[in-house]
Structures are given as structure tokens and as C-alpha cells.
Amino acid sequence: MGGTFDPIHHGHLVAASEAQAWFDLDEVVFVPTGQPWQKAAREVTSAEHRYLMTVIATASNPRFQVSRVDVDRDGPTYTIDTLRELSASLPDADLYFITGADALTEIFTWRDAADLFDLAHFVGCTRPGYEMNAASLEGIPADRVTILEIPALAISSTDCRQRTSAGQPVWYLVPDGVVQYISKHHLYGTQE
Ligand code: ATP
Ligand code: MG
């Protein structure tokens, strides 16, 4: 599951857990982006902070892992590079790439989009506020994509950042350890 995870929240964790259970996956690897190229317009928190929040949020689940492949690769993060690197290091694995509806409908804007489906099966998780319809999936080989209905959690990292900078709580939107990490490192303009 790729993401900026700025910060990781319960929407990400529920989507990962549902995909793990549905496909009986051995593990879900969370891959925080290095420099997300779609988000060049805004200041993204340092990769190290986002990586550590992802580790904290996933630590208690034995099936959840976090990979540094994108954090450690220089330059903007492209999913095609992520998948090539993961499939080289796990040659026997069947890879599933877990995304939300918003990300999946943009997939054809991603670099080397046509090659993505050779490397992984794509899982599009429903997300409140985003529609996924036949038109948005057009062009994706039908046997390489599954739409997965997720219990709706209208949580976004953008909202978590805005709430924090406005002094509003993010308790229960993100894991407790992430609330504490945000406060300890004064992320998102935390008010003291
Ligand atoms: P931002 O608001 O900064 O874009 P975000 O909440 O969308 O943050 P990302 O790190 O951009 O989080 O998302 C990583 C992946 O998780 C994407 O594929 C996204 O679609 C999916 N995702 C994020 N939130 C949810 C949610 N509440 N339900 C289902 N999928 C989600
Ligand atoms: Mg997003």
C-alpha cells in the first residue's frame, strides 16, 4: 500500500486490513513515498517523520510491515519504480497494490501506467467522497483490478493536518501513538 501517510490515519489502516483479509495476504507492506510528485505544490513533511509514524501505526499488527524503498530512493516517487523494486526483492510473491478510489481513478496519469498491471493486481478501496465507476476503470485489464468495499471512514490526512494546525483534536482519527508523535515533534503547526 503506497501513500504519503502525512499522517497515516485509520482510513489507511482499515483499507489495508480489509484487503489483507479479503485476499488472505501474507502481509501488507506500507510504502511511504519519498517525494510525491503529485504533491509538489505543497510542503510535505519529511520522509523520516512520515516513515516513523507509519511504523508506529502498524507496529502491533504482525501482518503489517513498512518498507523504506521509496523513502531511500532519490528523486520523485513513481509507483512503477516501487513495484519493480519490490518484485525484484520478492520474486516469488504475487503483488497486490492497494489504493483508494481517488488514487485508482488517476492511475493513467502515473508513469508507465500500462506496465503497472503486469507487476501487480490493483485493489481499489471505496472512499467517501470519491466515485468509482466503469468509466474510471476503463483501460485497466479486468482481471488485474478488484474494487473492494471498505467500511466508510471519511478521514483524510489533509483534514488531520488542518485540524492539528487549528488546535482541534485528531484523537481516534489516527492511532494514539501518532497523535503523540505529532505533538512531540510539533508537526502541522501543533499548538502548545
Ligand atoms: P492527503 O489528504 O494528504 O492526500 P490521504 O488521506 O488521501 O492524504 P494518502 O497518503 O494520500 O492519504 O493516501 C494513501 C492511499 O490511501 C491512497 O491510495 C488513498 O486513496 C487511500 N486512502 C486514504 N484515505 C482513505 C480512506 N479514508 N478510505 C479509503 N482509502 C483511503
Ligand atoms: Mg491523498
Automatic annotation (TrEMBL):
EC number: 2.7.7.18
A Pfam family the protein falls into: CTP_transf_like
Catalytic activity: nicotinate beta-D-ribonucleotide + ATP + H(+) = deamido-NAD(+) + diphosphate
Gene3D superfamilies (alphabetical): HUPs
Xref: SUPFAM superfamilies: Nucleotidylyl transferase
Gene Ontology MF terms: ATP binding; nicotinate-nucleotide adenylyltransferase activity
Top EC class for this record: transferase
Domain Cytidyltransferase-like per the UniProt entry, residue ranges: 1-163
Recorded metabolic or biological pathway in which this protein acts: Cofactor biosynthesis; NAD(+) biosynthesis; deamido-NAD(+) from nicotinate D-ribonucleotide: step 1/1
Keywords: ATP-binding, NAD, Nucleotide-binding, Nucleotidyltransferase, Pyridine nucleotide biosynthesis, Transferase
GO process terms (BP): NAD+ biosynthetic process
Function statement: Catalyzes the reversible adenylation of nicotinate mononucleotide (NaMN) to nicotinic acid adenine dinucleotide (NaAD).
NCBIfam families noted in UniProt: cyt_tran_rel, nicotinate (nicotinamide) nucleotide adenylyltransferase, PRK00071.1-3
HAMAP family, sorted: NaMN_adenylyltr
Family statement: Belongs to the NadD family.
Protein's UniProt name: Probable nicotinate-nucleotide adenylyltransferase
